[in-house]
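thread: overnight batch results

M.L. [08:02]
morning all. the overnight job finished for the chain we discussed friday. pasting input first so we're all looking at the same thing
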Amino acid sequence: MQTTSTATTAGIGILLTAGCAWAVYTIGLRQTRLGLTGVVLAVCTPATITAALLAASAAMPSHLITGTAGISDVLLFTSLQGIGTGLLSTLCYAYAVRALGSTLTATAGATSPVLTALLAIPLFDEPVTPGVSAALALIVTGVTVFNIAPRHRENGPKRPLLAGKSLDRTRSMTNGTPPTSAVSTSKVT
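M.L. [08:03]
and the structure it wrote out:
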């Protein structure tokens, strides 16, 4: 019988915790009244401040603070991690949650490990082991089953897509007139 190492158990625990945090983040995106810019600022600002404090306190090593980082490395890291992952991915994910709904977006996002593993094969010459193949097949099967299964409720937009702009704020659900107009609140002769 094979025993599980402490590092493997810790890794599984961290993975489960990260999955729960991602689920809370996705549901929070669905429920927030912040606009897309506000979501990006709410996510990126605390992360930037925390990273700066950790680097300044030497709790996290930083080649930028020690002055040993090359300008090309700084520009590459800023463009990929700062603008690409930090701003654009946050903006796109928040938009997808608002436009498609949190359930569908989170389920589609579950294909990320599959795409990453498949891209790693030609780019990094990663081997595809039977365990990896089984894991990828389970992910694809789960996403497929979820998307084929009938839904009991609409999973469409419930919040504005842009800050301060409703998807259809000029019509009420009952009679098609603006909810604050004189026609909707008084009898028309």
